[in-house]
Amino acid sequence: MASTSGVQLIEKVAALLRALEDGGELTPAELAAATGEPRSSVYRLLSTLEALGYVEPGDQRGTVRLGLRLFELGSAVARRFDVRQRALPAMKALQHETDQTEMLWVRRGRDAVCLERLDGRYVNLVIVDVGSTMALHTGAAPRALLAFAPPEVVDAALDGPLGAYTAATVTDAAAVRRTLAEVREAGYVVSDEDVVPGVASLGAPLRDHDGEVVAAISIAGPRPTILDAGRTRELLLDTCAGVSRSLGWRHVHDAVSR
Q1: What's CA 194's distance to the chain center, in Å?
Q2: Which has the closest alpha carbon to 100: 194, 252, 236?
Q3: Which three-class secondary structure state does DSSP give residue 230?
Q4: Residue 178 near residue 55 (C-beta atoms within 8 A)
């Protein structure tokens, strides 16, 4: 748990950044007046923030402004929303076609986060809500994200004991790695009762204009409706290919022999 002094320091930094957001370029004296902090404290905070790239010298002598590092962070967040906006119409079409539950996932550290969920006929079988997280070695979409993640992310995600939802959850790191290699070859993931008994899901990645995997879509429902329906897999792959094209990926190809 963060100490009181640590929380207060974060609040002071946030106040400085908000003041610069409102005022554009400001001097340390103006920032001290805007935040109610002593000028000496403002100087110390600005020195650290400038070293980290969160603020930079302004065009006017003696002023500072928000730095490019904040732009980079904001762009990363904006890309997530852009992925959701691009994916949502295609997900709605997929949900209408299959009547199954569709979910959109992105990676955050060692976890996958659900950004969107469209409820299907068997929604009561699916335990994941928007904002929920899952470990990257579990489920269909999280494993799709892990399969195409950088090696250091894979190593971190598989370091230490791996948790399980059911008896079918693979918790052996070496076995997970073998599965990830199969996913990269096939282009999609099959999750068979490893999160909820009786429930299966399929997951496939979404790529941006650089070919980077930025998200994944999964489709979940009772095992027979997912595993015995080859058409469901084809629809998911077509959906993910279309969304990837809308994100600028120009090398979409069918990685699965149909």
Answers
A1: 21
A2: 236
A3: helix
A4: no
Kindly report the pTM of this predicted structure: 0.69
Strand 101-108 to 213-222 pairing: antiparallel
Q: Which two tokens stand for residue 28?
A: 């340390």
Q: Which residue has the tokens 């399969």?
A: 147
* Length of the chain as a residue count: 258
Which residues is 201 bridged to in the sheet?
191, 220
Say if strands 199-207 and 133-135 run parallel, antiparallel, or are unpaired: unpaired
Show pLDDT as tens, one digit a residue, over the chain (258 residues): 456 677 888 888 899 999 998 888 989 999 999 989 999 999 999 999 999 999 899 888 899 999 888 877 776 666 665 888 889 999 999 999 999 999 999 998 889 999 999 988 876 666 778 888 999 999 999 999 999 999 999 999 999 899 999 999 999 999 999 999 999 999 999 999 999 899 999 999 999 888 899 999 999 999 888 988 778 999 999 999 999 998 888 875 544 333
Q: How far apart are CA 170 and CA 40, in angstroms?
A: 55
Strand order in the sheet with 133-135: 133-135, 111-118, 101-108, 213-222, 199-207, 189-192
User: Residue 128: what residue type?
Assistant: V
Q: Across the chain, where does the E strand assignment appear?
A: 55-57, 64-66, 101-108, 111-118, 133-135, 189-192, 199-207, 213-222
- Tokens standing for residue 170: 């693979």
Backbone angles phi, psi at 160, to 5 degrees: 90, 180
SS3 26: strand
Q: Which two tokens stand for residue 242?
A: 């279309």
| Of 235, 224, 203, 226, the residue nearest 134 (C-alpha) | 203
Q: Which residues is 232 bridged to in the sheet? A: none
Q: What is the DSSP letter of 190?
A: E
| Residue pair 147/180 in contact by the 8 Å Cβ criterion | yes
